[in-house]
Batch of 4 targets.
Target 1
Amino acid sequence: MDMYPKNTSPFGYQTGTGGIDTYGVNHNNFSLRDELEYQFARNKREQELMKQYNAQGITSNYPQYTTNFWENNANNNYGFGNSNISANIENMQNNPTTMPVVTPVTQQPVHPQYWETATEGKQVYDNVVRNEGNYQPQEQNMLDYGISAIQGGMNLIKNFPEMSKMKVSDKYKHAMMNCNASQYGQGGADIAKLASDLREWNDVRTGSNTIDTSQGDNYANLIGRLLGSKYPNGDCNELIQKYIKKTL
């Protein structure tokens, strides 16, 4: 049973697709009672983890758990049998070896950078992922997706002429365009990716960019979409300047 919306928890939990959540648990045979008991235990464990991380001074950008959240083997649905959720959760909670162990997390130092090559761009992008998590846009239903795609596309059309005239770094421009469009949701992120991919393809086709330079641009596009998706209400200008030099 899949009764919960596809919202991402601070530790990366989503209900997922096909009835299997991102923590690796299969909900297809869950009753309403099973689902409620599981979500209660999952939320309680996340709150415990959050307190432990907060005690280390980590109050945001928590590590993103996947199937390692429950750690024990996936056989028997990670210990969650049909209509036996309470007993399985109690067994897990009484056996600390089956639960994730919180270890100190050291975020990578952040220094705004500029780059030209794909290799340099990947290094910056990897640093963003280490600090922000490999964040993906939240899934939307068909109506919301269409609306966000239109909004993201209109944002690109509106901002492109102004952004082109700004005396700022090229990578900042790439990231800003993608960040702003992605803040509308998955549809906005996808339309930004389509527009960016088409532009890079045309730049390489016309000789304006080499393949390597174009791939370097794409890392700025990726950074912008990641930050815009993760912080839909954030200030893209501030978010991007944390990682990319605005002026050279």
Target 2
Amino acid sequence: MKRTLFLQPPSFEGFDGGAGARYQARREIRSYWYPTWLAQPAAMVSGSRLVDAPPHDLGVDEVLSLAAGHELVILHTSTPSLPNDARFAAALKQRSPQTKIGMVGAHVAVLPDRTLQDVPSIDFVCRSEFDHTCRELAESRPWEGISGLSWRDEEGGIRHNRERELIHDWDAMPSVMPVYERDLDIRRYAIGYLLHPYVSLYTGRGCPAKCSFCLWPQTIGGHVYRSKTPAAVGREMAEAKAIFGDRVAEYMFDDDTFSIDRERVIAISEHLHRLKLVWSCNARATLDFDTLRVLRNHGLRLLLVGFESGNQSILNGIRKGLSLDTARRFMTDCRRLGIKVHGTFILGLPGESEATIEETVRFACEINPHTIQVSIAAPYPGTELFRQAEANGWFRERALVADSGIQLSTLEYPGLPSARIEQGVEKLYRRFYFRSRAIFPIVREMLGDPQMLRRRLGEGREFFRYLRERRQQASGAPVVP
């Protein structure tokens, strides 16, 4: 095996660009997802190392010195972070010309030729689902025979090998838990709505939903949910408990729709209950009461649910497959069962207007999840939303995040300039959280746990700083941290 480094490069403060992040930006509260997409191939390459620079506060010089000792360096990149990652790759190639450097991620999977043209310091990119492509590179196989690889030959020409099939035997995929334990400090990973420390993982990839904005199914994962069997998940979680013991407060299953198969998720929950683990997962707001009750009884604490909009026409337009009344009934069931919900909303989707933003604000306050996250519609290359924006002239600019890391609205519509979409983020946050129905449950949570009290106070300071900086960004004023 080549000495292989899987790397999330250094970036601006608070940048959550890890492959587990749903969107690559700086969040309202300092948050970090695990680099799950890098950890999986790292688990398949003997002797490799995984470095996730942003949450570990590793600077450029430190990571350059570390990376120079490797023969093969594979960087995860994204549309917002590509310029930064390209600068790092150039610095590494200058310091270590013999090191083979490549990139993985949704952006390069969609735009392999353009990436290799725009980033002359890299030698290859891995398209589609890249785990086995990375393994074969580390095994020193001839590049012309590696499926899913786009690469630069000795004459400087760009070559694209045949496509690689998606992985279907997920039980054969090794656990990422030993990689987490070996290479990552789990205390560095925190999400405001999850217990701390937490660990997140995938038990499969792909999502049968056809949401027009969603990045991973349209670029890498596909629309068929391919997953580990409940028995295999049970073994992996038993291994996790043996490795981490009581150091992990909660496990988060980050599959796009972990709950899509009712029988499977119930079977997995039985293993989690036997192991006495607290857990959360992504879910659609279509789960029925009886299923929710079984999962709650088997240790489920929280569901991460994408509601997106309070306007039914917008939901229909993005093919969300969710009605507002179904979402209301789902939230009623979760409250009855004591299951917390972190609700996510997106402003700036096609059909958005001042009126629909107000509808979403009112809807969020009505259904009243425990916590919320407000994002701006991000038209990533490879998504239907990107194609719609190009065809209809909705792009104001192409930058998805500002230099400060705050997410921007790259889209605008007739009667709705991008600045109004960005201002809607603060409007929704303020209207939601500055209510007794939202504040009192959080205060009770804080009063019952001294650790939670300290954590929420710190998050509150970060939240207000974020709102101030977003207001400065929207007004065009210099952002002062």
Target 3
Amino acid sequence: MLYRLSELFPFAPWSVFRYVTFRSAGAAVTALLLSMLLGPRLIAWLSDLKFRQDYRPKDVKEGQTDSSAAAADTAKRGTPTMGGILIVLALDLSVLLWAQWNPLVLLTALTTIVLAGLGFYDDWLKVTKQDAEGARSRVKLCTQFLLAAFIAVYLWRLPSTTALVSEIQVPFLKAPLLVGLPILGGLLTVFTIVGSSNAVNLTDGMDGLAIGCTLICTLVFLVMTYIAGNAVFAKYLLVPHVTGASELTVVCAALIGACLGFLWFNCHPAEVFMGDTGSLAIGGLLGLMAVLIHQPFVLFIAGGVFVAEAVSVMLQVGWFKITKRKYGQGRRIFLMSPLHHHFRKKGLAESKIVARFYIVAILCAVVALSTLKVR
């Protein structure tokens, strides 16, 4: 919106809105202020509607944890959920105000809204039925796969973005690893978006954990989207140049501001949980960002915490099923999954676990940024 004003009035002070850096800063501040302003009102509204987590979480059901962990989770019952509404609202309003809309930005808006709607439906079932199961896994996965498949086909059919799907770009290499493989690239696109969405969802199990790690990971893509959208920087650093990707920097900045604002209320002890409304949306958005700048594998590095959380669940479930079939009784690799609950069962305080995961996330972010020069 403000960019259009700068085109109508191409003179000071409106001309400043033509700079991506200025609009990114504006988007971050706007999203932060919106979150801080609307946060208390949203929390009160959710409480009045009784959108609270009074059900027993999945990870404290029979056979998955002990009474001590269950007692820790019991203390969180009654905390309002669906706080992801705040993140999505602050993000979308900021992007609407500060970004120059192009196909890439429209895809981020579509992804955020669809996955937030899916998460809202899941949270709605949980709070109305007071059951941690929520929507069926089949429904959630089908929706995520259909959305990701649509994005993959759209990018492949759009002439300016065909290479994002037909070429496979790998970190630390100057040139694409594989070329002319749209089916493989499409599968990678789908896997990145769906996997990221669910990985962030699995990480959302402690106060401030998922939102803080998302904030750190988004900082990486703030830098990488700016470079990918700048032809000079992209050529110098030997990374793919994507036309219009600079506007994704505004989206990343808005997400950073929204994350900071939500973290204000979600840090321990949390006043509100983001729920699947937030975790599915921001996870999918991170995956899409990686795809749109032709760096899906960088997400696996920058989002190392999310990857570890998702892998811990897959290993735990897979090993449990294998050993149950073989020995008649399931066995576990971890004391509890996802991974952050394993450390909680080992006796670490929740705040210490979250802080240490932040440290790991920062290290992963540094390694991800190093791929810009190590080629």
Target 4
Amino acid sequence: MIVYFDKQTLLNYLTPATYTVSNRATIPSLEGFHLVCTYDNICKVETFDNEKGIKTKFECRVEEEGNCVIDAQKFLQIIKTLPDGEIKVTVDANFKTIIESGPSHFDIKALPGEDYPSIPDIVGDRGFIIPQYLFKKLVNKISFAIAQNDSRPVFSGAYFQITKDTMTLVSCDSNRLAFCEKKIELENRNKDGSSLNLKFIVPGKTLSDVIKMIRDSEDDMEIKVTRRYVVFKIGEFTLFSKTIDSEYINYERLLPKDHKIVTYLKAEELRSALERSSLIVEDRLNGSIRSFVKFTIDEVLSISTNSSNGNVYDEIEIKTEGGSIVIAFNCKFLLDAIRVCEDGEIKMSYSNPFSGVLIEPQNKEEGTYKYFVMPIRMNN
């Protein structure tokens, strides 16, 4: 195989492909880029980590077509260090690989392309099209509550429910629940012409990769769903992933509906106060006792934190209904939710010091969100 690449083009296509390269593969070829270069001057690239994969293709200049697997991390590091311009890659019959650019020359070893597992084309027959910026905005609203280290797989992903005029996303990590709903007319891509009615759970790691690949633009992306997979078509890239095969929790039952105390305040003011508290608060004190941020709600909202790092106190003006309450939270858990609230007034509803807080926008116009954060029990 003898192929000539433009350096920047090669980086633009290989960098996203690394998102689905396996780091601990039992099959060595899964740690590499599978490159297939053909005489029509096209290079096809695929990567796969047994759970998700990426396929893409781009133009190059092919002098001799071929098919090989090159270690992804090593190849990408080499390309980054080479001078700008044209890069020549030669792979001989023994898979000795020479990478050249100007006076620079690297000699590494590749693997036969036949060693790469056969990855079928996954083509969903149900799906929709959505602008990239909107998908990114909605996912960012709920991604903070996707569990990172939970033994229950259902909590390690985000739940999607799609109908002809509504898109709903939910995540939950046992301490927090995030709900986001958007009224929108999505372009229907169901092959049988049926109305959109999709329910699926996407792993959090997959969503993280997708968000890194899309832009804050009006450009469309297509999402297709099969019984076991979800497929994201983003420009020249196709990312596919196994979905989480489980029934999602009854999240509506978890959102409290009867509240004794309701407060109204500005999200940006609470965000600033919690960020100040986060400079002092500790997740663990002396290895065992958790410190926390304490809310005292009366005529104002008093926010206080005491830890081995020091003390902090703040007050925020609020409008309140229903009386007073003292309640404590893990500062990070609450701050994560407030950070993704829109600026403006929010509504925070409480039942008692042991039932948590429900956070909503005061004015619900084009879309809505709800965040529920569990409290921390104070020793006193």
